[in-house]
Design goal:
Length: 140
């Protein structure tokens, strides 16, 4: 189990994102946003970024496609979701997200901002592309 994502292959709706618990949390489930709960959200978000490992990987449902964490946010109303297709490392992911948001603040589209952020990391010889290249964008 990833420290930021909890998966349940038998009951996918119980999979979710783990947040840092607050003082009132008495059980781990108090700090988890489950897939079932995600589908109940009513978001008006233009962009959701899921920088956790394999946030686009889930259970393949016949006639439905991949049932993953990213899909819950789309169903809840997010227009665009950036997610990962495989394991990513914290530091390079953080650097990619910083570059992504800097480009967005400069007025770039989400597609262009993600492309430029990846190009910035490609130029670095000290960062293995496998540690950050799994980020993709789905949306309008």
């Amino acid at each position: 189990m990833s420290k930021d994502r909890m998966t349940n292959d038998e009951y996918p709706k119980l999979s979710g994102i783990v947040f840092h618990p607050n003082e009132e949390a008495t059980e781990i489930h108090d700090s988890v946003l489950s897939m079932g709960e995600m589908y109940q959200l009513q978001l008006q978000a233009d962009l959701v970024v899921l920088s956790s490992c394999e946030s686009g990987i889930g259970k393949l449902a016949k006639g439905e496609g991949m049932m993953a964490i990213n899909r819950g946010f789309l169903y809840a109303g997010a227009k665009n979701v950036i997610y990962t297709l495989f394991k990513v490392l914290d530091k390079p992911s953080s650097e990619l997200c910083e570059a992504l948001f800097a480009e967005i603040l400069e007025g770039k589209t989400y597609t262009e901002a993600l492309r430029l952020a990846k190009l910035r990391l490609i130029q670095r010889t000290d960062v293995d592309p496998k540690s950050w290249s799994g980020f993709v964008l789905l949306g309008a």
